[in-house]
User: What shape does this take?
Amino acid sequence: MIFIGELINSSRKSIETAIEAQDVQAIQQVALIQAEAGVDYIDVNAGTFVDKEQEYIKWIVQTVQRVTDKPCAIDSPDPKVIETALAVHQGTAMINSISLEKERFEKLLPIVAGTDLKVIALCMSDEGMPETVDDRLKIADKLVNGLLQNNVKVENVFVDPLVQPLSVNNNFGMEFVLAVEQIMTRFEGIHTVCGLSNISYGLPARKFLNQTFMVMAIARGLDGAIVNPLDKKMMASIIAAEALAGKDDFCMNYLKAYRAELFA
Ligand code: THG
Assistant: This one.
């Protein structure tokens, strides 16, 4: 599993406060605990600051990279914000995300073309949000082919089929996980990734739904996750599901997690 730590996001009150106060230590602490929890990427998102998103994302990237060599996943719908962050980022960043929305696609494609940047391809277009497996596959095909034709390696592409709330339509869980399966089959070597919180929007016991949904997606081939790496139950579910999905040779990660008392 490729883990992307979600905690540096200005939609979280403590992070919003830390960013506004330019509190270096507070941001670095959240970066470090996620790095120590074993994430592969640290998501950075200052999306709640409309006018200052560019200035703040640059400061966050620099602040995070002073304490860890984990790369950032630069999380913004605005190509200018992504460009600003990439200009200061050391090493190979992840772009979160490109989509089929015209402006976003046209501005970000030349930025990733021919590079070794990792890129999340979010299944969204100017026609709005996909609902069915087929909607997702149509967008994924165009996005992935566009990236491959511009010399982005398939293994650097992470398709996010877009999680939609189960409370809105009772098929949205399966439409997502079946899209994961199709995408992983169609493009050999590609990755899939998702955030989880949307699935449980509007329902109680959200953490329980999020965990169960993650397990179902892993069973269909999901190999990337934007998660809270400090959430022990979520991490335990992921590690158990990956072992059960045949992704953990000799159950080494499972046994290691057991010894570290993740299942206690
Ligand atoms: N896909 C992609 N990028 C994304 C998302 C996605 N980026 C943003 C979001 N969705 C994923 N990131 C977050 C960050 C914080 C929270 C949810 C999703 C959040 N956390 C709660 C909190 O801190 O209060 C709960 C954390 C917990 O205890 O688990 O709100 O879908 N490509």
Summary: The pocket of (6S)-5,6,7,8-tetrahydrofolate is lined by residues 6, 9, 11-12, 45, 75, 96-97, 120, 122, 160, 163, 194-195, 197, 226, 228, 231 (CB under 6 Å). The CA atoms of residues 32 and 68 lie 7 Å apart. The first helix runs from residue 13 to 20.
